[in-house]
Design a protein that fits this description.
- The complex is a heterodimer of chains A (about 250) and B (about 500).
- With about 250 residues, chain A is of the alpha/beta class.
- Chain A has a single domain, classed as Rossmann fold (3-Layer(aba) Sandwich), CATH 3.40.50.
- The longest helix of chain A has 15 residues.
- Chain A starts with a strand and ends with a helix.
- Chain B is an alpha/beta fold and about 500 residues long.
- Chain B has two domains: about 80 residues, no CATH class; about 280 residues.
- Helix content of chain B is about 30%, strand content about 30%.
- Chain B is built from 14 helices and 19 strands.
- In chain B, strands 1, 2, 4, 6, 7, 9, 11, 12, 14, 16 and 18 form an eleven-stranded mixed sheet that branches. Chain B has an eight-stranded parallel sheet with strand order 3-5-8-10-13-15-17-19.
- In chain B, helix 1 packs antiparallel against helix 2, helix 8 crosses helix 9 and helix 12 packs across helix 14.
- Classes of the chains: A alpha/beta (about 250), B alpha/beta (about 500).
- Chains A and B meet through helix 2, strand 7 and helix 3 of A and helix 11 and helix 12 of B.
Chain lengths: ~250, ~500
């Protein structure tokens, strides 16, 4: 579903991704773990197409298309969702307005009819109920005055409503207490655990992986994937640390 | 008014003009023409007055203003830069139209057509705006739905006792009312541009709402049958008697082109005891091209008098057009516990310059005012908020809240805030908050990652920024204004 080959990228002339290769099949939840500064957030931004992150080599094929050739909004329309580590505030714009415009822009990009206000609200209510989240959150302005935990839950609501084929979730678990972690983890399972979908789950900690069981775990270090294994790899990282695990021959 | 009436009135005007010409200074301009010669002299003033078949007192009033104006100097305190205006090189009455008549909308500049479409303007209305041949009748059909709608509209107002006329008609039909209030809120000598307007005002609107009447509909210049070519030196007077209410909409979101570069309007509002006036404006005059060539100079004097106790005047404006905007809709709060409000969004792009804001003059005890100003600058433009809050010595317990926010797009534009606060009574509570921000790359990328393209993302963020003002607009206007903000900022990012 997502095939990254030998990807290199830099910011302000500094190489961050350095020959990264990774493949995620449909129906797979693939966790990426790695020490600070390994390039985890850069990977998510490069996949999203953030300006300023310059791809200098390699390729990314997403659902048969050249992802790197697309604008950020085209990537979204083709089914790519980025869960942000630090969701951004947009004052004066309610979540309902934001998501309706975003969803309709995506539908337009896919040649589908836009949803009316009523139709959209119906979808939003369904998704909020599915995720056991309060509709009131949707009426508030995008992330304005939200606590860290609320922002992450709001990201899940967004993901639920936009219903992407593939999600790159960048440290979605950071700053969450146990209850919020459970809500977010259940959200990922509910929305994305599906034979036709894929997830790249970027995280530092095992605790999210207790809720969202990964099919594969890869370790990112110095801009490349240095090791890939099953869920047990994450458990070993937790007990032994990055240095010990990465020091083993691959 | 049907065509017959109009022709008759034209004839009357011509005769009056001929008469005036004979009497005054042997003036012999070609009165067959529909416009005054270039330049401004007493004769120009007489021509305009005669053309409008005005009574003697009105002509005298205009001439007095003209004589005052000749000794006045153009103000230069605003943060605006423009080439010196040659007042003798302008037309002051119905300048000849250089606009080519189009055979159909297919002949329209595709750029303008695109903007019309984006605003969602119906085809019929587009034809009127674009000046397509034979679109006149369409105007009546499309803009007013049908003649009968316009007629029933007038009848409904009449039943309610509301007078809603062009100011020219009002001068002839309700001279006592006009005389009582004209120039009372904005004195003839108020400022250079207002005085000029007194001398040469072309037309405008008169609204009178009698005691206790709640005007049954939003009054809009759209609905005024004889609203033609009045944009240049518009003059508006609205009087709301005790306990009455009226909401007035001015302007149009469609791009307005005008061959006259100089615009100087005057708007006067009067609210008596417990009366409320809500005045909403969308201004989208031609801003000049992206190189800063052309565009309207818009020097406007708008002021409301909250004369009675508990009266309220609320100004809401969305300013996106004009090359130069000089405009400070203000409230003189004489009445006890009276309320003044000013909500403004001003957008400048490319080389546009706006110096706009408000004055809240608190003379009444317990009077309150709210100022919410949102300035959005893009391109190489300059956007200034200039405001004054004054509290008189005997005005106890006055409150003012001012919020001035500026949003910058790009790094070549300017945003400025110039508040003046003069408080002569220690019981006053004055709050002033100001922020300046930029649309951040984080916000743009976040919105784009969710599916919006760059322009949609900018539009969303800008509309969020301006929401506190847009929500004050009447519903149908608010939707158009949102689209307008987006269009005004096209091409300003990236």
């Amino acid at each position: 579903m997502l095939k990254i080959e030998n990807l290199t990228a830099e910011i302000d002339g500094k190489t961050i991704l350095n020959g990264l290769s990774l493949e995620v099949a449909a129906g797979e939840i693939h966790a990426i773990m790695g020490p600070n500064g390994a390039g985890k957030s850069t990977l998510s931004y490069v996949l999203g197409g953030r300006p300023g992150y310059e791809v200098t080599g390699g390729s990314v094929i997403f659902r048969g298309q050249d992802l790197l050739d697309m604008e950020p909004h085209e990537r979204a329309a083709s089914g790519l969702f980025l869960g942000f580590q630090y969701p951004v505030e947009i004052p004066g714009v309610s979540n309902v307005q934001f998501l309706r415009e975003a969803l309709n822009a995506q539908r337009k990009g896919r040649g589908e009819e836009p949803l009316s206000g009523g139709e959209f609200l119906k979808v939003a209510k369904e998704k909020a109920a599915l995720l056991k989240l309060d509709m009131d959150m949707l009426k508030r302005n995008v992330n304005v005055g939200f606590s860290g935990g609320e922002k992450k839950r709001a990201e899940m609501v967004q993901m639920g409503i936009l219903d992407p084929a593939f999600a790159v979730l960048d440290e979605t678990d950071s700053g969450l207490d146990i209850d919020a972690l459970r809500v977010v983890g259940d959200g990922i399972n509910t929305i994305m655990r599906n034979s036709g979908k894929g997830v790249l789950l970027i995280t530092h900690y095992q605790r999210l992986l207790d809720v969202v069981k990964p099919d594969k775990v890869s370790i990112l270090s110095k801009g490349r994937i240095v090791k890939t294994g099953g869920p047990e790899l994450a458990l070993r990282l937790e007990s032994e640390g990055y240095d010990a695990v990465m020091a083993e021959p691959a | 008014m049907d065509i017959q009436d109009r022709a008759e009135m034209d004839k009357d005007a011509r005769e009056a003009a001929e008469k005036a010409a004979e009497y005054e200074h042997g003036w012999s301009s070609d009165i067959e023409t529909e416009f005054a010669e270039k330049g401004l002299t007493e004769d120009t003033v007489r021509f305009i007055s005669a053309k409008k078949n005005e009574p003697e007192w009105m002509l005298d009033w205009r001439l007095k203003a003209f004589r005052l104006w000749q000794d006045m100097e153009e103000p230069n305190w605003a943060k605006l830069g423009y080439p010196e205006i040659d007042y003798q090189d302008a037309y002051y009455y119905a300048a000849p139209k250089k606009k080519v008549e189009l055979d159909s909308l297919d002949d329209l500049d595709p750029e303008i057509k695109r903007v019309y479409d984006k605003l969602g303007i119906p085809l019929g209305e587009q034809e009127v705006l674009a000046g397509v041949k034979g679109a006149k009748k369409v105007a009546v059909d499309a803009v007013f739905d049908s003649v009968s709608v316009a007629t029933s509209f007038r009848e409904e107002l009449k039943r309610a006792g509301v007078i809603f006329l062009s100011i020219s008609e009002a001068i002839r039909e309700y001279p006592e009312l006009v005389k009582k209030w004209l120039g009372k809120v904005v004195p003839m000598k108020d400022n250079y541009f207002a005085t000029l307007n007194c001398a040469v005002f072309s037309d405008g609107t008169f609204v009178y709402v009698p005691e206790g009447v709640r005007c049954p509909m939003e009054l809009s210049t759209y609905f005024r049958i004889n609203a033609e070519n009045t944009g240049q030196f518009e003059r508006t007077l609205i009087v709301a008697e005790k306990g009455s209410y009226v909401s007035y909409l001015e302007g149009c979101t469609a791009p307005m082109r005008d061959e006259n570069q100089l615009h100087a309007a005057v708007v006067e509002l009067v609210a008596m005891e417990d009366a409320e006036i809500k005045y909403s404006t969308v201004q989208n005059w031609y801003p000049g091209n992206s190189e800063g060539v052309g565009g309207i100079y818009n020097f406007v004097t708008k002021r409301g008098l909250c004369q009675g106790a508990r009266s309220k005047i609320s100004w809401t404006q969305v300013e996106t057009g004009s090359a130069v905007t000089w405009k400070y809709p203000s409230c003189v709060l004489n009445g006890e516990d009276s309320v003044g409000e000013f909500y403004s969004v001003a957008v400048t792009n490319n080389f546009q310059q706006a110096d706009t804001g408000t004055k809240m003059i608190h003379n009444g005890k317990g009077s309150r005012s709210t100022i919410i100003s949102k300035g959005i600058s893009a391109g190489k433009s300059n956007n200034t908020y200039r405001g004054r809050v004054a509290v008189a010595a005997n005005a106890d317990n006055v409150r003012n809240f001012t919020q001035c926010d500026s949003l910058l797009l790009g790094d070549k534009c300017g945003a400025h805030t110039v508040p003046y606060i003069e408080v002569k009574n220690p019981s006053a509570t004055i709050e002033h908050e100001a922020t300046t921000s930029k649309i951040s790359d984080d916000q743009l990328f976040y919105a784009m990652q969710r599916g919006l393209d760059e322009e949609e993302a900018v539009a969303l963020i800008v509309n969020g920024f301006a929401k506190d003002v847009l929500k004050e607009l009447p519903m149908e206007f608010a939707v158009e204004a949102q689209k307008l903000l987006a269009i005004s900022l096209e091409g300003s990012v990236g």
